[in-house]
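> example.struct
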């Protein structure tokens, strides 16, 4: 099954405590961000960032979805999954 991620075009639009966000800096590195607890991971490889976000989803009952925010110039690769609007 192909994973589905909420696509945030602006981090200010992400206000949901039950969504953990993978912030992609480029096609190789990203960080995982959460509101609850309020934390930002160290920069890491894309696969590691998605793995960490999926661990949040499976281990923290508070987290319901995974979102993605991409810095300007980063293009989504379909092999990562499908992006959908959070609204």
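> example.seq
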């Amino acid at each position: 099954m192909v994973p589905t991620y909420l696509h945030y075009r602006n981090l200010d639009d992400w206000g949901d405590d039950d969504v953990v966000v993978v912030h992609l800096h480029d096609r190789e590195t990203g960080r995982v961000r959460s509101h609850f607890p309020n934390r930002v991971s160290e920069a890491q490889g894309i696969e590691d960032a998605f793995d960490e976000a999926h661990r949040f989803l499976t281990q923290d009952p508070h987290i319901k979805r995974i979102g993605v925010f991409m810095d300007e110039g980063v293009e989504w690769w379909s092999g990562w999954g499908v992006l959908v609007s959070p609204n």
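> remarks
The CA atoms of residues 26 and 73 lie 8 Å apart.
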